[in-house]
Design a protein that fits this description.
By secondary structure, the protein is mostly helical. It is built from 6 helices and 3 strands; from the N terminus they run βααααββαα. A 3-stranded antiparallel β-sheet has the order 1-3-2. It is elongated, with a radius of gyration of 18 Å.
């Protein structure tokens, strides 16, 4: 997932000049920190059982709920059985963009399947504003 923030380019440029730092390094650092905060948002929201479009996740099927209970897992729909899927989420950034992705193909496939029935991999408008604040905090 690419993080795309709507910003005023002139405002960003002015902030960078004011700070007096290398533009490329400042952008890369700010985008990297913003992407990590994006991962934190996704993990926290998912652990609470809420999708990025709002509302609680669709419940587990009766069969899967019984399987989870047999393995000692709760009924809370948090998309975590072993923790590997969300644990494999990471990010990379350059001076133009930041990307959040899964490091292991198996976990990326799992995430894609989960995201179809329980959308978790994305940001709502409020979260985008929060990420924009993080970006500007570290660029200014």
């Amino acid at each position: 997932m690419d993080i795309r923030l709507k910003t005023n380019a002139k405002e960003v440029e002015a902030a960078l000049k004011k700070k007096g730092k290398d533009v490329n390094q400042s952008l890369k650092r700010a985008l990297s920190i913003t992407a990590q905060q994006g991962i934190n948002i996704i993990e926290d929201r998912t652990e609470s059982g809420v999708g990025f479009k709002g509302g609680a996740f669709k419940g587990y099927s009766e069969k899967y709920a019984k399987f989870r209970a047999k393995k000692g897992r709760g009924k809370n729909v948090d998309l975590q059985f072993t923790g590997r899927m969300l644990g494999s989420m990471t990010s990379k950034a350059d001076r133009k963009k930041a990307t959040i992705f899964f490091t292991r193909a198996e976990e990326a496939k799992k995430a894609a399947m989960n995201n179809k029935t329980r959308p978790f991999f994305g940001f709502n408008e409020q979260e985008e504003r929060q990420l924009a604040k993080v970006f500007f905090r570290y660029i200014k």
